[in-house]
Amino acid sequence: MSKVVDTEQKRSWVSIIVMVLLCILWLIPTFGLLVTSFRNIDLINGSGWWTGLLGPFTAENYAGVFTKTDMGTSFINSFAVAVPATIIPITLAAFAAYAFTFLDFKGRDFLFVTIVAVMVVPAQVALQPMLDMLGPRGINISGQYVSVWLLHAGFGMPLAVYTLRNYMTTLPRSIIESAKVDGASHFQTFWKLVFPMSMPAIAGFAILQFLWVWNDLLIAMMFLKPQNATVIVSLAGIMGTQGQGWELLTAGAFISMLVPMAIFFGMQRFFVRGMTSGAVKG
Amino acid sequence: MTGVVLSLALTGCLQDPNPRAGGTGGGEGIAQGGSTDGDKVVTVLGAFGGDEAVGFRESLAKFEAESGIKVEYNNSTDFTTIIKARVRSGDTPDIAIFPQPGGLIELVNEDQIQAVDTYLNYDEINSTLIPGFLDAARVNGRVYGAPMRMAVKSIVWYPESYKATGKPTEFASVQEMQKVGEELSADGTTPWCVGFESGPGTGWPGTDWIEELVLRMWGPDVYDQWTSHKIPFNDERIVQSFEEMDKLLLADGTSYGGRKGILATAFGDAMNPAFESPAKCYWMRQGNFISGFFPKPVQAELDTAVGTTVFPPFEGGFPGQPILGGGDIAALFNGDDPDAIEVMKFMTSDKFGGEWAKKGGWLSPHKTFDGSNYPDETTRSIAEMAANADVFRYDGSDLMPNAVGGGTFWSGMVDFTSGAKTAQQVADDIEKSWPQ
Amino acid sequence: MSAATVAASGPPTTDKAQTAADPKRILVGAVTMIAVGWFIGNGFLALAYYPQWFAVGMPVFDKIIQALLAMVLGIGGAVLFFYCMNVFVEGLPGRLGQFLMPYAWILPGYFTIGLLLLYPAIQTVNYSLANEDSTAYVTPIYKNFQDVFADEGFTRTIGNNLLWLLIVPATTVVIGLLVAVLADRLSPKGESISKAMMFMPMAISFVGASTIWGFIYDYQSGDTQIGLLNAIVTAVGGEAQSWLTIDRFALNSMLLMVIVVWLQVGYAMVLLSTAIKNVPEDTLEAARIDGASELKIFFLVVIPQMKGTIITVFVTVFIMVMKIFDIVYVMTNGNFKTNVIANMFFQELFVQRNAGKASAIVVILLIAVIPVLIYQVRHFKREEAER
After folding, report:
1. Containing domain of residue B130, as a range?
2. Which end of chain B is more exposed for a tag (fewer CB within 10 A), N or C?
């Protein structure tokens, strides 16, 4: 037994050291941005950010963001856009992924492969047709949240289906089989077994999708009316025609970042080992 | 499965070559865009945001109170794309403020814009505007937009420390600047501060240089022929202008940082070396908006910290003083909304903009605008430069089709400045890229 | 959750070979399905057309109500819809039911993809054969493709994309894997924090990322360097460089790749973490007891069990890199020989306003992704055989 404990300890040290190194390396640019956001624009342009580690610090960039935009409303808008735009595609994709994984049907491979193929299409290609369809000439929902939910659902769907399906294939088939044998319908198998077991992948994808929708600029700018502007759109609007005021964006980036990071931490509880191993034993 | 069927059903159709604007037919030649008429709300879309948007709104505050009309201004950093997209989907604003005339002209050709003479007093604004502005928005003899802001580009900025060199602060010709520049260089300081870097738009300040030189060396007529493609881009006179810029800015000892520096320095930071002591360079040729990019202490004492003079004519070229500039042009999408027309009338008059002028960063395109609104002497002298010019021309890359003016001309300047291509090669390549 | 519990909680269904149709089920299922579909569709439209129905006066609460309604409609609606669909399909005669079921399941998801991506994609293929504003076909029909290939920078651009594809996906996956595995060994708190740090670049939004890397690669003509890289270089006695303009050995492209790897490791890590949690602890224990070294365990026990996810991540990063655009656009706009295909597409569509040529570029991308698809299909067959 002690042999196992020893190697565990040794293992942890290596892990810790390497991780610390990697984290520091990864953090340097972000840290630089943080320091920059607390510096006055003239200082930013005149000297490297590492010289400003001990100050002088100023909160003017942050103050500028709050005075020039309606941050409160923008945050609410961002949430109103991001949460449904994350949950809806995942729900639909989970159903589709289940079908691709556990059901055998004609054309399955072909349909799945078209989903992979379509991931390579740049989003800009879809923008004009969508504007036509959702704007005044079409069903005229452009400007409301609904249009953005639809767009993000569509754009995130291929990746969602692909990721979830690939995860579901790693689930132990035996459980599913036994459920079938016991007479459960597909719906029940999905809802009570597969869906809960796929939580890590679902949580993982939810983090990513939320982040993409939260940080998205192009779609939000084109499809939301100004009262519904998200945080990122509001931040982009701070700049003058020639880009004046970009230093406020460094502060804006951090303000905006708080929410995705909070979601990230919140979702960590889904990354729990043994969701399936328990099922195998029991 | 349904997706595939739907796709197949809907494809095989090409776009309608004559997209019609929304709404039923109105009277003869009435633009039918925008939001509902007569509801006392006017929607305006523009390209400027941040502080500029604040200034704009403040300038309308009194008008809104007096007329009871509410103006909803929104901006988009990607204005040119968005306005086109919105036109195609039928979701246009009542009024749009175009940063360049090119986009406006395209939409005029699609019957989206109301001609100015149907709702404004043409003669009145023509008499108060600096000559040249209305021409930029003229299509087939009729004018479709009027400016509500002016940008002057032909300004040479110099720091206070320049005065100590004893060299002249006004110049009779470009050649004189060249000579003085050589003297400064011999004394140990490169004369020009230049920066072309601008993210995806890197190179655009270089296009201004070429346009200034073409305008001065060959005159406004050749300039107009060049920007409207009546002469090819690689006309030998244009190539000569490139080579003149090479002599002026790219030869050794002329610009701070040399070619590398020019391409790596952001246009907003280009003058910073001039404010150091000792100054590393002295002159910057840039538009009036650049004062907003100077270091804060400089901005606080603008009149004493910097001086301005007009970029002089070219000896042997056009004899008068030309000014290169720009301006936001307002255009009416909703031709039968009386409220929108009221707003247009106000915006394009010489009474508009006092509040914005006081904040700085805005110039009125009207000769008759009350100069006491400007916050400092510097702005006033720039306004005077424009008013006294013999001829005013819009920035060329704004007049050229976007493919060139916002594309190959920019990257061409990058290639030329880095030395990757010769003047002839760059001009040839840009000529090839001009859309048919 | 044992299988017995699952079966006990649902209505008893007889075996699959039920051949008789159950008209009651069909009717109920069909009607409820259509009703639910209609209700959800109109619910969403109502949210768009008549937001005032759901308003309570305060804009803050209005928006929250809208979002909550959307979620209820979306999830509740979807679940209900599927349930009804299930009922409907089960009611159908055995063979027909079994046949239709899978299609029913993928329908909503696939419909969304079809509408938003497939339809524009097919339109794009159509446009690639047409002229600049897509009003008429061009002659010869492949003219746009000719123009694309004749473009002078095209070979260099393709070369750049290939370089990107060679370097970035592999690097991202390797580092992501490393992080996922190592973080898994730490204490839960340590794991959360370290993963958060690797994830932060993605959270910072694109504008923040381009600003900060601008500060790393910055070049100043004078003596003071404000860019980190040049500061380090000058501190050790070298000469400051304008890094992003150096195209020797594609250095500037590589510097851009560094940015993308920095960003995407977070993505890879999140997904690979989910897979790592699936590696049963007992297999690791067993290997350790057998005396295997950590390295061996990593390669022979952990990785094989994560293979599926590793491939997923690799393929998706690969496809993302194929259409890499934002970083190149903002940092260099393709100048200094850093151009990539997606940037060319953007230039053609929005600057040159040539929809035909731009569409041709997308078609080329679609053709280029075919090898990935072939691999994917082969991978399937192998997977199915193993299962």
Report:
1. 29-150+327-369
2. C
Domain count, chain B: 2
B318 φψ region: left (φ > 0), alpha (ψ -120 to 50), beta (else): beta
Residue C167 to chain A, least CA–CA distance (Å): 18
Between chains, do A128 and B198 touch, taking CB under 8 Å as contact? no
Question: Which candidate from B6, B201, B202 shows the least CB-CB separation from C114?
Answer: B6
Chain B partners (3+ C-beta pairs within 8 A): A, C
Q: Domain extents for chain A?
A: 2-58, 62-281
Same domain, B265 and B120: no
User: Does residue B22 have a pLDDT over 50?
Assistant: no
Residue C130's beta-bridge partner residues?
Answer: C137
Residues of chain C positioned with their CB less than 8 A from the CB of A5: none
Q: Are residues B243 and B358 in the same domain?
A: no
**Does B429 lie in the same domain as B307?**
yes
Decide if pLDDT at C114 tops 70: yes
Q: What average pLDDT score do residues C163-183 get? A: 91
Domain of residue C327 covers 154-338
Dump pLDDT digits (tens) for C236-287: 888 888 888 888 888 889 999 999 999 999 889 988 888 887 777 788 888 8
A136 vs B contacts (CB less than 8 Å): 22, 89-91
Which among C339, C321, C326 is positioned nearest to C173, based on CA atoms?
Answer: C321
| pLDDT surpasses 70 at C86 | yes
Enumerate the residues of chain B whose CB falls inside 8 A of the CB of residue A117.
Answer: none
B335 and B261 within one domain: no
Domain identity same for B160 and B268: yes
Q: What is the ipTM of this complex?
A: 0.82
Pick from A203, A108, A200, B9: nearest CA to C106: A108
Q: Please report the pLDDT score of residue B225 as a whole number.
A: 92
Question: Which residues from chain B sit within 8 angstroms of residue A137, using beta carbons?
Answer: 22, 89-90
Decide if A27 and C205 are in contact by the 8 Å CB cutoff.
no
Nearest CB partner across the interface for A240, out of B50, B78, B295: B50
Q: Which residues of chain A have pLDDT under 50?
A: 1-7, 9-10, 275-282
- Burial track A86-123 (b if 16+ CB lie within 10 A, e otherwise): bbbbbbbbbbbbbbbbbeebeebeebbbbbbbbbbbbb
Q: Which residues of C touch B76 (CB under 8 A)?
A: none
Residue C82 resides in a domain: yes
Q: Identify the chains in contact with C, defined as 3+ C-beta pairs within 8 A.
A: A, B
- Does B28 have pLDDT greater than 50? no
Whether residue A45 and residue B91 make contact (CB cut-off 8 A), yes or no, is no
CATH of the domain at C232: 1.10.3720.10
Q: Over the stretch C20-32, which tens digit does the pLDDT of each residue have?
A: 677 887 888 888 8
pLDDT at residue C51 greater than cutoff 60: yes
**Strands B155-159 and B306-310, bridge-based pairing:** antiparallel
User: CATH code at B194?
Assistant: 3.40.190.10
Structural domain count, chain C: 2
Interchain CB contacts (distance < 8 Å): A and C:
404
In a domain, C348, yes or no: no
Q: Is B199 on the interface with C (CB under 8 A)?
A: yes
Report the distance separating Cα C338 and Cα B143, nearest Å. 42
Same domain (yes/no): B58, B197: no
What confidence tens digit (pLDDT) does each residue in A110-153 have?
888 888 888 888 877 787 778 777 776 667 677 788 889 889 99
